[in-house]
Amino acid sequence: MFSATCVAPVNMALVKYWGKRNEELILPINDSISMTLDANEMSAKTTVCASESFKENRMWLNGDVVPFEENARLMRCLEGVQRLALANGAQRFPLSWKLHIASYNNFPTAAGLASSAAGYACLVYTLARLYEIPMNEELTTIARQGSGSACRSLYGGFVQWHRGTTEDGRDSIAEQLVPAEHWPEMHMLILVVNDARKKTASTKGMQLAVNTSTLIQHRAKEIVPQRIKELKSAIQSRDFKTFAEITMKESNQLHAIALDTYPPCVYMNDVSHAIVNFVHDYNESVGSLQAAYTFDAGPNACLYVLAENVPKLLAAIQLAFPNDSQQSVEYVKGIPVPPVETEKCNTNGSVGHVYSKNMLKYIIHTKIGNGPHQLSDEKSLLIDGLPLPK
Ligand code: DP6
Asked: What letter does residue 37 receive in the DSSP assignment?
């Protein structure tokens, strides 16, 4: 039996991927840029085992069986990596050996945070390690076919996914712009919003947008190329002000396109809009852009903020969004935040408006991080090809 176990990070888009030009190959209508998040707080972990004795390919996600052979996206990832292994002269074991795969997310899937990106990136990366394929950009074209945004999780730091122009998508690759060490002060507060509604999945939402929105092509052709250029230069020069402005405008435009979709897709809720107002008020009160929000296809807010400004921003959030669980250690998860005195926060002109209680479920404090990595065999999620008991 051969096996590999790896961890892959979540990424959060700054310039958003929204809309495909090819549904099957997952080719986007525009480039996107994301930041990879530290795997300590949020990541997927996957073990893949290959054995001559396995009768069929099997997969478990968070301990539950998932149909594998019926899932076109999973199969395309597996076949893609196997094709590469063949081209690389795979020697380790016959490609006909069946696989057992177990994958876990280290953060609550219920939070509606980008779990599929980390999941597919981890699957492709772990398969590549198993078949002894070195990391290369072709792997990003394979992860892309699992879930578009997954291609960006194969690198750390800031990453650009190029839309590409070829029909077969071979140039629709992800590329690292700068590693995490380029801007290690880049942190994030994720405000997980209390929300019971079921969201329209991204895949459906963007498909409907391409078919019905009259604004989306203008965005892809005219707006995004310019924003990509400006954001890349802001990242290079660590210009947080420009970075923040583009990020917030991008998030707003994604949700404007979602509303221009017919029937409209509503991802942000009243709490999300309260957070948007809060961030603008906060930036005004501190006299510069210190926090930048972005929202994906759901109500949770991701706030980009430099490390030195985290304590003050968090204190202002706690004042504006009071919560019964505020004192609980579970309320602010992730990297510990040193406390600031409340008065200091007020004299800094912190936001006056206090929203109603318990609008937030919890907060995660994380930061920029590296790409996937392999773990030692002892960290396996499978014993003799079967998942560890929960
Ligand atoms: C709003 O990558 O989940 O997070 O390719 O259909 O699987 P599929 O979609 P997915 O879409 C992500 C959309 C987004 C923006 C982004 O991550 O760029």
From this structure: B
